[in-house]
Amino acid sequence: MGIFDVFKKKNSGDIAKDRLKLLLVSDRANCSPEIMEMIKNDIIQVIKKYMEVDTEGLDIQITQTPAEDGHGSVPALFANIPIKDFKHENIKK
Amino acid sequence: MSEVLVVTSGKGGVGKTTTTANVGTGLAKLNKKVVLIDTDIGLRNLDVVMGLENRIVYNLVDVVEGNCRMKQALIKDKRYPNLFLLPSAQTRDKSAVTPEQMKKLTEDLTDDFDYIILDSPAGIEQGFKNAISGADRAIVVTTPEVSAIRDADRIIGLLEASEINNINLVINRLRMDMIKRGDMMSIDDVIDILAVDLIGAVPDDENIVISTNQGEPLVGTDSLAGQAYLNICRRIMGEEIPLMDFDKNKGFFSKLTGLFKKI
């Protein structure tokens, strides 16, 4: 924070708005287990086109990751997908 | 031809009951046949805000349990011939009715009324689920504060998940002086965050307290809130009304002191 930040001091209304925007991304992401199931199944369908994966050992979830500006954290979709084999037909192209 | 509206918010104390009372009364003033249903079982308040607390004989739970006919429970407002109230029960709790029973109850009313307005309790549990089960559309009430907006967002998500997609927002208790100073989020800020169509904005108005004290909803009267609520009624009926300029009633003295500040 340098001297120029004095001029950029935010009023509380703007602070509230910024906080809410971050907060709602987090709230909305955590909301629905059904949506997570759907995302998981869609990802499996796409990946299956290119490689064979271990669907039992698959881990897809929303986690918190540090924000780019260094302040706090933002939600991120984390996917750990063990690969069993690549499908040769697709590599030919 | 009947519309079933639920007035909900998530957060308590933001103005659901006040909005239900004023919108219902306003629509009745505009000659529509309106029934208001208080679904807050155990903590009823719509009767008191409407000034009808001394006229309760039967209530919502009595109707659902078959202890009386609907006509016996409905209270006709003597001030407006088209306005009726179905009060809630004070001595039961929200497990006394199920969403299915509420759906049937609202369906049974659609032949007789133009607007059926359900006042939802705060929260997201059984009371809320009961209130929304028969509804075609929702009015979400919020204030321009962090907790209210956060809860409103969750409520909007739950409404959409229940396939109620006609959702409109009422922003209540706006203070233009604070908004101008940057100490309160503006109407545009709130709409930007919640991304739902606005159906009205009501300023913070002392007259609301007075009207509740007296049990006389102030919609249509000369106050700012009264005008705002009437505009909301008109918009519900499909008219396009621009948002009020809340500074309209600025008194002479505040204009004078404003002049001195500039010197």
Brief description of this entry?
Chain A has 93 residues and is α+β, with helices and mostly antiparallel strands.
Jot down its keywords.
heterodimer; A: 93 residues; alpha+beta; two-stranded antiparallel sheet; two-stranded antiparallel ribbon; 25% strand; elongated; B: 263 residues; alpha/beta; Rossmann fold; eight-stranded mixed β-sheet
Structural overview:
The complex is a heterodimer of chains A (93) and B (263). By secondary structure, chain A is α+β, with helices and mostly antiparallel strands. Chain A has a domain at 32-93. Chain A is 42% helix and 25% strand. Chain A starts with 11 loop residues before the first helix and ends with a helix. Chain B has a single domain (3-262), classed as 3-Layer(aba) Sandwich (Rossmann fold). Chain B has helices spanning 16-29, 46-50, 60-65, 70-73, 99-109, 126-132, 146-161, 176-181, 187-194, 206-214, 224-236, 252-262, and strands spanning 3-8, 34-38, 75-76, 83-86, 115-119, 137-142, 166-174, 197-203. Chain B is built from 12 helices and 8 strands. With 263 residues, chain B is α/β, with parallel strands linked by helices. The interface between A and B is medium-sized, with 15 and 19 residues.
